[in-house]
Amino acid sequence: MNELTTGAAAVQEPDETWNKVLHTQCPFCSVQCKAQIRMETASSGAVTYTVEGVPNAASGGRLCVKGLNAHQHGLHSERLLQPFIRKEGKLEPATWEEALQVIVERFTEGMAAYGSDSIGVYGGGSLTNETAYLLGKFARIGIGTRYIDYNGRFCMSAAASAGSKTFGIDRGLTCRLADIPLARCIILAGTNIAECQPTLMPYFNEAKEKGAFIIVIDPRVTATAKMADLHLQIRPGTDMMLADAMLKIMVDEGWIDERFIRERTNGYEELRSRMQTVDLVETARLCGIEEELIRKAASAYGQAETGIIFTARGVEQQTDGHLAVRAFLNLVLASGKIGREGCGYGAVTGQGNGQGGREHGQKADQLPGYRSIENESDRAYVASVWGVAPEDIPGKGVSAYEMMELMHQGEIRTLFLMGSNPIVSNPNVNLVKEALEKLDFLVVADMLLSETARLADIVLPVTSYLENTGTLTNLEGRVLLREAALPAPGEARQDWRILCDIAERLGKGQLFSYASAEDIFEELRVASKGGAADYYGITYDRLRREEGIYWPCPSTDHPGTPFMFSAAFAHPDRKAVFTSLQNPVTKERVSKDYPLILTNGRVLAHYLTGVQTRRSPALAARSEANFAEIHPDTARRYRVEDGQWIEIESERGSFSVRSRISGNIRKDTIFVPMHWGGVQNVNLATTPALDPFCKMPGFKVAAVRIKQVY
């Protein structure tokens, strides 16, 4: 049985302390809007909550429906308030001492029998910078394993690797949000801002009011696409071809900045030669877009004085996501639209700390400050900060999904998981479930009992965003401080404190001696100093005074860097790099047996795997169950009625959801949200194929068939 034997009590009984205003920050998307919650207790004991946004530079005081209701999961009756240990198949309440003792015993036994690399550590993109930093340190010198990665691999890895190769550094936005209204042309490729980051919409509305031409590239007619001047309703998986076609047109028509190319870039001639091989007619056919519309998009962007290109998961969650993003970056460089006001590139981060989470050590190949774990000088520097020898830091591990494969193969036998739900979020869920069930020992630290936590041997209760102090880095690269607004409920502990407690019992306490999150941040500052993501000049005191500071910020008197690449790029020769590489990946293709394309995404009311948002009555009521969006013609072909349960099947597996017939989707495509587990989990059918450059799974293209469920 995978249920708790006792239900969690209410988080906290109302008392006189509840008549106050809580100052906090939304835990969800990458905008990281500031908020305040007014809590009032009536004489009857009933508590009412009034939530409103707080004016700040990122969102201007706006909150979306998720932010307005985030407190509902933080104060939910299902919050985990004590540790649980599995006994005779059931998760039973336990003391912290008992839980920590079992963890240390099982870790020690596993390392003795199979080596340190038999233990994997799996993190999350919603963890604070402090916890993300400490989780990497804990894995590498607390345990000594090279196997650490995090769910942000599924969010930003394609854009991150593309930015690093092109610019020499990866930061979500190269410009400011304030530059959006200054752009004369904006391309939104594979991003539905209106539902995923709705508090950013006023920036785009203002740009449109000022005459900006907005292009949306998406296989669906989303709320964002309805705002656009031009919607390119692309066939999923053909984004790179579309970007190449646009560039060919710009080159042929002379809509490029030759001086910028000559003075500030490398690799253009090779790319120009490859452009001669691009067949516009064939590209239009493959993309499912009229050639004239591609020409219109190229003209609008190529001839605009200023412009910004944004990409998100629609482009990036592909087996060629790295090169697809680089193809859009080719457009940016060829037009010279970067390094000046109203210009740039932005990867629209999905998770709350997807940016900061990868900068300080959760990724398999990275050390704090965006240093490379394979670079000897980087290893030596971080080792000196940690007080260990460079050889004590293990080498590069593998990506998040590859960790699941190693678990399935028995190489990773123990997993410590914090702030993630891989049994829902990973592709090829059947394999992932088998892998988790094969483990000798699974520890999950979370605030709620997720689908993955239900499989755990030990579950540890952690604090929510309302009780947790730490910094987060939003999509702009702006570091923000979120301070605890409430005490921890029950026996819940700070996630970083749990890591310190385990490390101490493993005999590494001297390396994990911190009194507060600020103590950890002070070490993070030093560890990042001189790195690409340099936080050294950022302090808690400055963040309290200044609200937010952009990295890189190399000294305490530095103002931060809101605007990137105005004078130089981050490569040693100060130049950006075009790519002329062709797509090496053969994507999954439709066939007679699997004739439709399955793509996935998000809806307004939910976040990631829905563990938090489904505990919010206000949010759950908006989207109670999963669905498949199907074009009316496709529905008629397969005799599917609106609201009918259907089964969607690929070569990997199948799931069941209700149909939602809509003219807003391509006829060859089915769209299914990714927020539900169980039989409604879209990832039962997605492909485990990975991008060879960044190991991003190809979530957005799976060949499927549908049938009615009677």
From TrEMBL:
<keyword id="KW-0004">4Fe-4S</keyword>
<feature type="domain" description="4Fe-4S Mo/W bis-MGD-type">
    <location>
        <begin position="19"/>
        <end position="78"/>
    </location>
</feature>
<dbReference type="InterPro" id="IPR006656">
    <property type="entry name" value="Mopterin_OxRdtase"/>
</dbReference>
<keyword id="KW-0479">Metal-binding</keyword>
<protein>
    <submittedName>
        <fullName>Molybdopterin oxidoreductase family protein</fullName>
    </submittedName>
</protein>
<keyword id="KW-0408">Iron</keyword>
<dbReference type="InterPro" id="IPR009010">
    <property type="entry name" value="Asp_de-COase-like_dom_sf"/>
</dbReference>
<keyword id="KW-0411">Iron-sulfur</keyword>
<dbReference type="InterPro" id="IPR006657">
    <property type="entry name" value="MoPterin_dinucl-bd_dom"/>
</dbReference>
<dbReference type="Pfam" id="PF01568">
    <property type="entry name" value="Molydop_binding"/>
</dbReference>
<dbReference type="InterPro" id="IPR006963">
    <property type="entry name" value="Mopterin_OxRdtase_4Fe-4S_dom"/>
</dbReference>
<dbReference type="Pfam" id="PF00384">
    <property type="entry name" value="Molybdopterin"/>
</dbReference>
<dbReference type="Pfam" id="PF04879">
    <property type="entry name" value="Molybdop_Fe4S4"/>
</dbReference>
<dbReference type="InterPro" id="IPR006655">
    <property type="entry name" value="Mopterin_OxRdtase_prok_CS"/>
</dbReference>
<dbReference type="InterPro" id="IPR050123">
    <property type="entry name" value="Prok_molybdopt-oxidoreductase"/>
</dbReference>
